[in-house]
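Hi R.,

Here's the chain you asked about this morning:
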Amino acid sequence: MRKVLVDTSIWSIAFRRQKIAEEERQIVEALAELIGESQAVIIGMIRQELLSGISTQKAFEELRDKMSMIDDVPTLNDDYVAAAELSNICRCKGVQGSPIDFLICAIAIRSNLPIMTTDKDFLEYAKHIPIRLVESCPKSQ
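And the predicted structure, written out as tokens:
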């Protein structure tokens, strides 16, 4: 069974948007398939990003409960060091990124997981560090 580390951008399309654009339906369907097969995984920082900024307690609780069925990949102390190293590698190549993005990359590399995202920054990271991206998703951002 292949697990996939699903980034915030995908979860947001599926669970936070009121209207889903036609080109994003494929993304939602792919995520639904991963969830149905227990292949979607998340890290704590992505869960926090997704749940942050919810306007009502009821909406927060509903999303929290939906997300509770998704397994977490544990974050290790070494992942933070690896994330900094990945950031430095990319920065030396002229590619900037957020600490969270590089933490996602570090955990994905350690866990041998592909990343499902619509964030185009990951395409740039992949040119310099050994991450794998799920290719079946149209890029919406």
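Residues 4-125 form a domain with the Rossmann fold fold (CATH 3.40.50.1010).

Let me know if you need anything else.
M.
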